[in-house]
Amino acid sequence: MNNHDLEKRDIAHTEDAAVDHVPEEDAIDKKAERRLLLKLDAVILPMTVLMYLSANLDRGNIGNARLQGLQKELLDNSDNKYSVVLLSFYITYMLGSIPGTLLSKAFPPNYALGAGCLIWAIAASCMAGCHNYASIIVCRLFIGLGESIFGQAVVLHYSLWYKKNEIATRLAAFIGAGVLAGAFGGLIAYGVSHIKSHIETWRILFLIEGLPSVLLGISVVLFLPGRPEHSRFLTESERQLELLRLRSQNLDEGDTGIDWNGVKRAFTDWKSYVITFIYSCMQLTLSSISGFFPTIIASLGYTNADAQLYTVPPYAVGFVVMVIVNHFSDRLHKRGPFIIGVFTTNLVGWLLLLVVTHNNRARYFATFCIVIGGYCTIPLIQSWVSNNTGSQSQRAVHLGFLNSLANWAALTSPFIFPTSQKPYWHTGFGLNLGFSVAAIIVTSIMMIYYTRENARRDKVEGKPVLGQKVEQAKYHDLAPGFRYTI
């Protein structure tokens, strides 16, 4: 921690010498809390999960469409043009992520999230009508714009409703929809490939996966609960209980709009960039899977149609592992050790693909590992950021970093799997392997830092008092009494 941070903490400590108290966990009616959580989960989870399922289908179907003739018909069978189409998504996705996430802080989250969903849904549906290279790039740009408004804003939205030790499990269900999208996408593409029609099958694929998302976007605007303070979804007694729950962990910031000091804190805090680097290591795997997973499966000796079907089991297993890992992460209140474990699985997968050249069973097993590594890490890192940022505005910007700055790695993925290296793709497999190693090392360093910083604060301030009011909204992660999640 630099001298500027220490000075701010000393000021905060002086101003907050009189310790206010927040409700203790024991003061909350546990039965009523369980009923409230069930009610929240019954609406918030299905709608956000469906959005993520939709987003991943509409983003990832380009890989399935490639095998169904899109590259041949629109892109002159050019690898470079296909790579540029993949790349175009990330341009708007990265540029829009920080302002897009802040929209859910400045406006009711259901309006912001619903608008993002409508943008990508309309653009994804329009891809069915593309007849040239330029038009498909324009559609992909708008898909990226829509998803930039949505991507990390859902994590922010969860932090408005759920306590710190409840987020990772919910995010696992949310991100798990992306894993299921890979499975459903393969099944849908397999089914569509057998349709006999005068319309190209890849156009039918875009329509089938794009049009339902338009209805979803409208539903989100109308029915997704916005903020606890104003939502008509809650009765007055439920609202008071929800605010009591949030207050017990100093999360009751209220509807205060954007706090530009929190925005500044996110930009000036070195930890924002280190955690973002770890996320970028995952993004390389995720974007590699999104653009090339059916192609990698096909390289194991399957036909293009069968390859779509064989993408399903790795995604299904990845979903189950994700839910289990994040459930235990919440129960143990730990993030770093689980992040290291998942990246180690990812490392094993890319290593097998790189060094095993003739055993297709081992290579197929490796595809399970990279799906687990690509997806399971997402909710863990997002929860880590959510837990370790003190205020909502700081959290919104840091979460935005995960899509904007972290996607520099994803920009390389369209170019590291050239057809000339098929079926061993040493460049793509090797780069993913190297980034997995880097992620393990940096995560270990951050765990050591957080442990030492928590101990230093305990020494300076004394251990946090149970029920102590922590001024996170005012001083962010520098507030006296704030401790980092390891």
UniProtKB/TrEMBL annotation:
**The keyword Transferase belongs to this UniProt entry's keyword annotation:** no
Q: Does the keyword Cell inner membrane apply?
A: no
Residues covered by the Major facilitator superfamily (MFS) profile domain: 44-456
Q: Where are the transmembrane segments?
A: 36-55, 82-104, 111-134, 140-159, 171-192, 204-224, 273-297, 309-326, 338-358, 364-385, 397-417, 429-450
Pfam families linked: MFS_1
Q: Which UniProt keywords apply?
A: Membrane, Transmembrane, Transmembrane helix, Transport
Write down what this protein is called: Major facilitator superfamily (MFS) profile domain-containing protein
What is the species of this protein?
A: Kwoniella dendrophila CBS 6074
Organismal lineage = Eukaryota, Fungi, Dikarya, Basidiomycota, Agaricomycotina
